[in-house]
Amino acid sequence: MALDIEKLRALQPQAGLGFRIRRLGHVVLQVTHLERSLLFYTQGLGFKVTEIYSEELQPGGFAFLRCHADHHSIALVGTGAGRSRHTELHHIAFEVGSVEEVFAMRERLRERGATITFEGRRRAGCQIAVEFLDPDGHCLEIYWGLDQIGASGYVRPASEWNQNSRSRRRQSGNRPRYRHSEIASSVKGFFYNGTKKRPARCRR
Description:
Elements: H1 5-9, E1 27-30, H2 34-44, E2 48-53, E3 62-66, E4 74-77, E5 92-95, H3 99-111, E6 116-121, E7 128-133, E8 139-144, H4 184-187
Parallel strand pairs: 1-4, 5-8
Antiparallel strand pairs: 2-3, 3-4, 6-7, 7-8
């Protein structure tokens, strides 16, 4: 049965729930070798270790990692049965502060021999991103410039998704304004193997 896109877009939370989720708190991944994964996430991605559970407390060990003031943003449990098969979790994304940091992360990943599955501008959301695999095959994304939705609820239409010279829209109640000079030159040519295509793994 075909999806009714307009019906799905119209879905809204009920009034009077009594609560509101503020943000995504943390993600916990099963990994096959905790030390190997800790090296990747700390030395490769820059996370800091907050706490480690011994194998007595948690079979395989349990590592809590942070990237800001929260105790942990991601955690790793060393009980994975094998490489990720991408049957449930699609990918996890981490924001950085500038497009230059996205490029720096890409170079860091290349230096460490990571498998990069996508680099360029995404469609919905229009962020500049690099997607890659961790040692267990989990798909991760580093991004900058995700569209922000203001009080009016206006969302950039699909006809503007591929306008590569346009950056993050400012959060306001009006139609979005774009800052051309910030990324126009640096984004040119920033695509996987010179195209917007990538391997079927983690496709979206």
